[in-house]
């Protein structure tokens, strides 16, 4: 197979790799496989088109030796074969040796192709990879056979390295924006927690405590025949289902509950209470299993920040084990919590300050997203040979 670009070649990954393999998960019930481990181990959920410099989990030598997982050499390319949401098809490179679970494939490039060139090539083809895997018997997962069969167009090695160098500078700029965003978010969250606790302490002696439920009126309105966009409520608040799931599980949302402006919706948590407050004027629909309340007598954004600050405490008190759903929220107990609420003018001033912080973060996120869009366009031109680089 010859590439349509003059001077370039086209080969399958099976021809460009020393090895292509998937990992494995040691038995999670055997503590000696995990406790005090020192071998970096990762799952597909940690893959997000980036360079891996460390992992959140480790296994022991005992765990490694009692599974079929293998060590991934540095400068390999990792591909998520499966995973929740839109994980499948995402890629990464690694600066450290590590091992992976079975939902990650490791491509160890041979001398024909520069690892970062291959990484960017597959990153550019994220949508293609997802479509390829969805067509494999309808299972919605990639596999080693599919990975090995992917064709890659590539120039001579010096040009590959130059292309990767150019794209790396864009990654560095994007990462700088990410660092700014992380710093702003950490400062914002610290400020919110400090101010909520300070206001609570300040008004404790002059303000009568009230139950959370005194500020909420439950809403049970259903979608019916209306066409109302469905959303999900999780640890990141309210999000469009299309942003989370690649395919909807149902097309009938007639029994969904309606979510309106200044409503709070409690979802189904696992380790913590999950909720979202709708601050926009949009109208959405949510699962009938969720509880929806209209917020009255308190600034909605202030209530959200208050719950954010107290969530760890409330989750320990009110997350219960249900025979039907596993962990769920003791919503009655939560809503009976007594809280100290400062005057409305103080709440609104607090909300104004924090909203300005959020707007600044959103602006940084837009700048980051613009850089990423520009990078995607550049990748498309460089990695298809439409634009050729000049070598030094």
Named at the architecture level, the CATH assignment of the largest domain is Alpha-Beta Complex
Largest sheet features? 5 strands, mixed
* Computed structural class: alpha+beta
Quaternary structure state of the chains depicted: single chain
For this structure, the CATH topology of the largest domain is Adenine-n6-DNA-methyltransferase TaqI, Chain A, domain 2
Helical residue percent band: 25-40%
Q: Strand order within the widest sheet?
A: 2-9-6-7-4
Low-confidence stretches: 135-139
Kindly give the count of domains: 3
Number-wise, the strands total: 22
Query: What value does the Rg take, in angstroms?
Result: 25 Å
Measured between the Cα atoms of the first and last residue, the distance is 29 Å
Going by CATH, what is the homologous superfamily of the largest domain? DNA methylase specificity domains
What overall geometry do the principal axes of the alpha carbons give?
elongated
Q: Could you tell me the strand content as a percent range?
A: 15-25%
Top-tier CATH class of the largest domain: Alpha Beta
Q: Report the average pLDDT across residues.
A: 90
